[in-house]
Amino acid sequence: MSKTLLIFIFCLLLSCNQKDIPDQQSNNTPTSGKVQIAIDDAYTNLFTEFVRLFQHTYTNATVEIDYTTETDAVSRFANGQVPLICLSRQLTSFELKNIKERGYYIKTIPFAADAIAFIGRADMDSTYTDEELIQILQGNTGLNKDHNQINVVFDRNNTGTAGYIKDSILLGKPLGANCYALKSVSEVFDYIKNNNNVIGVLAVNHISDIEDKHVQKNLSGLRIIAVSKKVTPDIYVKPDAQHIIDGSYPFLRNLYLVNGEGTSGLATGFAAFILSDIGMTIIEQIGLKPAKEPVRVIEIQKSFNNE
To answer: For residues 282 and 49, is the Cβ–Cβ distance under 8 A?
Structure first.
């Protein structure tokens, strides 16, 4: 079965006959045309690879991605400016109500799982319990072994990472006064390296591909903090592929595609590509957990010895 036929079958399953968020080109098909989508920039590495392979496979397709904050992506989707977004959470009931009042019907599809990584300088403590990190994030007991305050830095405000910390880890409680938002991921790495007693908080996607030279450079002189759960206080694990897959790392979350295109256009075709075995393999290779295991075809050749 051809790749194009598989994409069309996926699109039939993903699309619906309801009013859809307007496409940028009326003549788009699942494998041709031009579309713009908005993605939380925590997943730049992942979606850059998705787009590269999709456009290599379907040479008449152009997918333009605006890497932005989670808040901005949701706003643009709700306003009908983009038909597809990626989030590290599901839309809230308020957001869904707002979108449905506009007559749009959407599909939310989980496609991967990732984690929140905590990073420190090599001269800092390398292990924390999940409760210790929660207390540090709240600014309550953010002290290192020398009783100095530990500061926490994020890549920027209004991202999925900051939202996850506030909503899922702190359960709605505010971040402490020791927590600061910078302007980019690169600033987080630089700030940790150039300041004492700092923990950086990032989506693991930024460091999961350990073979990538850019990742190796960013992590030079730093260490990924290992974390233990309350139920297993003596077992410290890092947010690597193994511990994301087996669920032993404490701070995990699902990634979702939110598709409002409704018809079988290019946004739906791109979403179908991500959900295909090729997309799942990309997710696995980057060090995240795919929503389903990609099918691997193994060819076994038999040889007969006539001697």
So the answer is: yes
